[in-house]
Structures are given as structure tokens and as C-alpha cells.
Write a structure and sequence with these properties.
β1 and β2 form a beta hairpin. This protein is 25% helix and 27% strand. The chain is built from 2 helices and 7 strands. With 151 residues, it is of the alpha+beta class. The protein has a 5-stranded antiparallel β-sheet.
């Protein structure tokens, strides 16, 4: 008698990496030009203000935090997003603010914290949607050439 296991969610790595590559291209356009730890940039997008702060900068990675500082609806703010940028691989992904408890690629369902099966993909897809919205509705954003840097 053979036992068959129920197949769980398996993340598509090519689909996920493509999303992270798109996030890299767009996040580089909102990155503070100083590029050093503590540098920040204020963005105005559709009557809302966001601050992009470089929390840590190293040779191959940069950690940023995107925080809403003023909302269109008083008292309604989105939670901050912590993003790690990998310059050597040219990808950017949302990471958990506590780096010891990263977002897992997939979760069993149901689970105690009610994470979605594809939570990691969904938070990075949200970052992509937010960045796309910034590019189309935000104030002047730096032009970025992914191959050579700022244009």
C-alpha cells in the first residue's frame, strides 16, 4: 500500500524572481540619492506623503524602510514596508522588520497566524503595485537606468 501526500503550495521561483527584478528597477527610482545610511527622501503620491529611509547600506545590499507620514484620510496609514535591495542580483524583496523572523516562501494552511499560503509573493506583489502607482501618480521621481545608474 502506498501513501500519497497532498501536494502543498509550491512557489514558482521564476515568477517570484521576475517580480523581485521589477521591484528592483522601480525601487531604485525612489531611493534617496545620497545612498548612505540615514539618508531619506520624501515622496508625495496622490495627496499622501511617504518617507523612504536607508536603514543600512553595504556593498551588495541596501535595507530601506518605506513609511507613510501623511495620509489622504486622517488617521488611516499603511504599515511600513521593509525592503532589502540586492544590488549584485538586481532584485528587491520585502523582508520582515525583525530579520530573524523572515517571511517564509510558503505556509501550511490554516496556520496559527493566518498567513496566506503564498504570503511572501503577495507582499512583494503589493510592493510592485505600490511602486507602479508611485511611478504613474507621484511627483517627479528620478530617472534610473538599471545598467549604469542614475541618468
Amino acid at each position: 500500500m502506498t501513501l500519497q501526500r497532498k501536494a502543498g503550495y509550491i512557489q514558482s521561483l521564476p515568477k517570484y524572481l521576475t517580480l523581485c527584478e521589477r521591484n528592483y528597477a522601480n525601487v531604485m527610482r525612489i531611493l534617496p540619492s545620497a545612498g548612505t545610511t540615514g539618508a531619506s527622501q520624501l515622496l508625495t503620491i496622490a495627496n499622501e506623503q511617504y518617507e523612504v529611509v536607508i536603514e543600512q547600506a553595504a556593498k551588495y545590499t541596501t535595507d530601506i524602510c518605506i513609511t507613510q507620514v501623511q495620509g489622504a484620510v486622517e488617521g488611516l496609514f499603511t504599515p511600513p514596508m521593509n525592503v532589502r535591495i540586492y544590488h549584485d542580483a538586481k532584485v528587491a524583496e520585502v523582508v520582515h522588520p525583525n530579520y530573524h523572523t523572515r517571511i517564509k516562501p510558503s505556509y501550511g494552511y490554516p496556520n496559527p497566524k493566518m498567513h496566506h499560503k503564498d504570503e511572501k509573493y503577495q507582499v512583494n506583489a503589493f510592493l510592485h503595485d505600490w511602486l507602479s502607482f508611485c511611478m504613474s501618480h507621484g511627483e517627479a521621481v528620478l530617472d534610473w537606468d538599471c545598467n549604469s545608474g542614475l541618468v
